Amino acid sequence: MFAKPIPGRTTAAAEGEVVVLLIGMRINHFWGVHHWLPVLAAMPRMLRELSRDSSRGLLGYTLLTGSPRTYYVVQYWESKEKLYAYASAPDMFHRKAWAMMNRKEKKSRQHVGLWHETYIAPEGSYESIYADMPPYGLAAVTGVLPVEGRGRRAADRLAHRSVTERKG
User: Fold this and answer.
1) Residue 59: what pLDDT?
2) Within 13 Å of residue 157, how many CA atoms lie on the same side as its CB?
3) How far apart (Å, rounded) are the C-alpha atoms in residues 163 and 84?
C-alpha cells in the first residue's frame, strides 16, 4: 500500500518534453460551503475519469494542500495537445464543471478562487533528484533511474538528451 523508499539518490527517467499542470482552488469564505464544496468535489471526479482512460493523456498526479484554504493538484500529461483535448471535450466532466462554474461565477467568485498554471518543459529544461524517496512526482510517472545515469550535478542532468532528441 505504501511505496518503499529507494535507498540513495535517484532521478526521474523522463525523456523528451514534460507537461505539468498545477490546478487548484482557494476557499475565500469558509461559511460559503455550498459555493466551494462543489468545486472541491469536482477535481476527484475528473481525476477518476482521467485515470479510467489512459489514452486521454494524464500520466499521474499528486494532490496537495497549501493551507486549510488552498488545495491543488500537480498533474503530469503526455502532451499539451492531450491536455487541451480533455479540457475542451464536450463528453468529459471538465467541460460540464467549467460550464457550471461560469453560470454560478458571479455568486461564487467571492467564496472560492480558482487558478491553474501550465508548464511545457522541453528536454534540457528540467531535472530532478530524490534522496531515499519512493517514486514521487515526475519519477512516479516516468520511472526512476540511479542519479549516476543522468549525472551527479544538476547541470549534468539538465544537459541530458534522450536518443529521440538527438536524432531530431
Assistant:
1) 97
2) 19
3) 27
